[in-house]
């Protein structure tokens, strides 16, 4: 609990300033995200060497001012300064998306709670968990979309951060009503309960996706053969373990549901319109996870609304929230 004096100081900090800082930071992380998404899956390139970005065609090293997120691309009108080759608009779009996501994360976890939250360690821990999740998952989505692979550096490595993070149980509990408790082992101390509950959520999610994949192999042998013998990549199975650790079971369930709905509808459109054979599932898992993380209250409201909708007249609907 912060003292009245610290809260008074926090009252003097304009929320817009904190939001702007979060968004600028997000834009720079977005710039790094583009580097990771391009270099990590290409074994011959290292993340920090060359230190500066270079044009993929003329190999000229870019000046620092060409590297300013979003603005650099706009000033160059989307072309390399040296060889005039078009630079993909995906670069500034990823940077803008990261700025928006960082802003949303800090807004949801800290700024919406007022001056008390601005000086609360718990609120900032939740912000850190959300921002870290966004930073890890955005390159996962991009790399899986481009190459249908999910590197272990992004699916397994971040467990070193997120498993200890689960000891602070606020991120897992945030926004959930008490009857949707993500913690499973109440006989244990709170921090150990958090860690074990996160691991169980991850393991249950992975096992479920693995079983779905095995069922897919049996049910759709023709398509499975075209996809190289497995209908579900093992990269997705590993990724879901990480997502379960980040989210806890109730939010993982919501993320799964959103991923399947999105994947089915977008996948269908792509298969018809662009004749994509295999649409990777990773980007949809990432979208579902970010939605479950940043829109927990809205998702609960939607579930409540749906339960009320399908409940026959005269029966009191089971409520999730409230
Ligand atoms: Zn060039």
Explained architecture:
- The protein has helices at 4-11, 15-39, 71-75, 90-109, 114-118, 121-147, 152-155, 159-165, 170-173, 190-219, 221-226, 234-247, 249-273, 282-294, 296-310.
- It is mainly alpha-helical.
- The protein folds into 2 domains: 1-119, no CATH class; 129-322, no CATH class.
- It is globular, with a radius of gyration of 22 Å.
- The two termini are 25 Å apart.
- The model has no long low-confidence stretch (mean pLDDT 89).
- The site of zinc ion has 8 residues, from loops.
Q: What descriptive keywords fit this protein?
A:
single chain; 322 residues; mainly alpha; 2 domains; 15 helices; 0% strand
Q: Tally the helices.
A: 15
Bound molecules: zinc ion
Largest beta-sheet details? none
Tell me what portion of residues adopts beta-strand conformation.
under 5%
- SSE order in H/E notation? HHHHHHHHHHHHHHH
Q: Look at the helices and sheets and give the structural class.
A: mainly alpha
User: Can you give the mean pLDDT?
Assistant: 89
Ends: how far apart? 25 Å
Note the overall shape: globular
Which stretches of 5+ consecutive residues score pLDDT under 50?
none
Question: Whole-number radius of gyration?
Answer: 22 Å
Q: What is the total tally of β strands? A: 0
């Amino acid at each position: 609990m912060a003292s009245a004096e610290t809260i008074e100081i926090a009252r003097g900090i304009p929320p817009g300033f904190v939001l702007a800082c979060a968004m600028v930071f997000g834009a720079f992380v977005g710039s790094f995200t583009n580097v990771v998404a391009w270099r990590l899956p290409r074994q011959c390139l290292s993340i920090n060497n060359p230190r500066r970005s270079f044009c993929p065609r003329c190999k000229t090293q870019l000046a620092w001012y060409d590297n300013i997120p979003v603005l650099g691309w706009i000033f160059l009108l989307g072309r390399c300064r040296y060889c005039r080759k078009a630079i993909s608009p995906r670069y500034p779009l990823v940077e803008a998306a990261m700025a928006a996501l960082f802003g949303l994360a800090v807004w949801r976890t800290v700024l919406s709670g007022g001056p008390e939250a601005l000086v609360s360690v718990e609120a900032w821990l939740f912000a850190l968990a959300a921002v870290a999740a966004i930073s890890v998952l955005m390159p996962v989505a991009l790399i899986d979309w481009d190459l249908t692979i999910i590197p272990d550096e992004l699916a397994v490595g971040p467990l070193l951060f997120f498993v200890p993070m689960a000891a602070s149980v606020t991120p897992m509990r945030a926004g959930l009503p008490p009857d949707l408790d993500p913690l499973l082992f109440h006989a244990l101390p709170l921090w150990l309960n958090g860690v074990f509950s996160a691991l169980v959520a991850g393991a249950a999610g992975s096992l479920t996706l693995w079983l779905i994949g095995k069922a897919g192999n049996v049910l759709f042998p023709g398509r499975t053969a075209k996809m190289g013998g497995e209908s579900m990549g093992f990269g997705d199975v590993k990724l879901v373990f990480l997502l379960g650790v980040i989210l806890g079971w109730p939010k993982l369930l919501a993320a799964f549901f959103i991923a399947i709905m999105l994947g089915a509808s977008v996948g269908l459109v792509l298969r018809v319109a662009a004749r994509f054979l295999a649409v990777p599932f990773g980007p949809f898992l990432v979208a579902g996870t970010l939605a479950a993380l940043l829109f927990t209250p809205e998702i609960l409201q939607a579930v409540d609304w749906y339960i009320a909708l399908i409940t026959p007249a005269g029966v009191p609907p089971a409520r999730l929230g409230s």
